[in-house]
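ok so for the tutorial part 2 we go from a plain amino acid sequence to predicted structure tokens. step 1 is just haveing the sequence, like this:
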Amino acid sequence: MYLSATFIRDSCVKRDPASAVRVNQSYAAWLAAQNLGTFEAQLGKKFGTDQVKALRQEISGQLAVLDTALQKLGPASQACPALATQFSSDTFDVRKKVPNLAALLTVGRGPSGTTAASGSGSSAGASVTVYSVAQLSSLMAQTVAPLRSAGTRAQEAAGLKKLQTLGKVIVVSGTTKRRRSITQADDRREVRYDVYCYDMHNDAADPPQGQVTVAGRIREFDASLGVVLEDCVVLSAGQSAQFKKSTLAVVDAAWQFKSQPYEKFLVPAGQGLKDSEILGAYMEQSSAVGVGGMTITTYPVSLFLKDGTVFNDPYWAPTSFNFKLSRQLEPQKWGKWTRQGNNFTIKWSDGRTDTFIVKGAPKALPAGTRLSGTFETISGGGTTSLGGDTIVVSSGTYTFRPDGTFTGGSFGGGGDSSVTVGSSRASGGTYSVSGYGITLRGSASQERRLFFARYNDDMLYIGSSTYTRDR
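step 2 — the prediction. this is what the tokens look like for a chain of 471 residues:
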């Protein structure tokens, strides 16, 4: 906008000397009203004169198009006086379109790599506070906690208001996780709310990989994503080292626990849950992404225990599942249930409360039960359902025979002190069913003891997947 206005001024002065004084006066008044008198100098200080020159060259084609459009407006003696009045219109109202422009120009990189926060040197850095992603996540978690029943919009509005108390531009340190996402994590936990950077300035489209410190303007708080910034600038190590670190406390609510590898919770048969400790397996209706990206209806199973707890991701046969370690390392998968007629009310470890509407109760089978038939599971992803050209398909098949043999399946990596599990595709072997578990034995002592339940003759649960009979 600044370069376009300057281009219009220069063009009119050249093409219509008679209106040059009026055009120059209107342009000068616009610069003063928008606080742009030192704008170009500030750009040079923030990004370097070479970058400003490169920007001019980059938009030269757009200015050529603008010049053609100006000439179509009519004789310069008529068009230029009319254009002069446009400098005071909403079209060129920079302060309205970018209300925090001055703040954006105060934090960034100068041509020599020093900060321009409010000058240069350590005195400038002392006035800027760097927040960790965990600190911002903690601030948001505490802000929205009292508004859990008020709805998402109320939570997001409160979160944005709280963020704005930190300033229009904030500086955040963290680790890049995926496209434009900055996070913080350790072996067990990750922050509940990441920081997202949009409109990266003077940098690549996405933040560099690894530890970064960014400065950006607060755009919004999204309860499903996290803190969203725009006009982000990645700061150099020298710049960020000059800033003071925030002392904002990080509370437990700032974190969520990661899902751990299934193999971490495998123990020898008989060292996990006892059959007598299990109330039952129940399924509820949910949804997932299917082949091509289409949303499909699913019926995942949760394992309810008699001690009043529930686990929502059964994979191993319960008798081989280290449930005590799971409660410690992945508490997000555990909750406490109370019976509500045929359904359950579950309070999860993070404080959420859900109503579990029972859609069925897959059964455990007596030891020695034989199976018969071919059962298949299929999942996937992609974009074809939305008109894209990407399709992802993942499937698996088991064929069980009454003689106790099977074909299909796979053996993943992992194991424990008593069982060695390979990583090859299984061609088959023998199976045995007992309670909520199935033991699959392949060649070379390969063995898997997985969660198992039968809903009806056409639907089985094996591991964490639902298998249906192949007709």
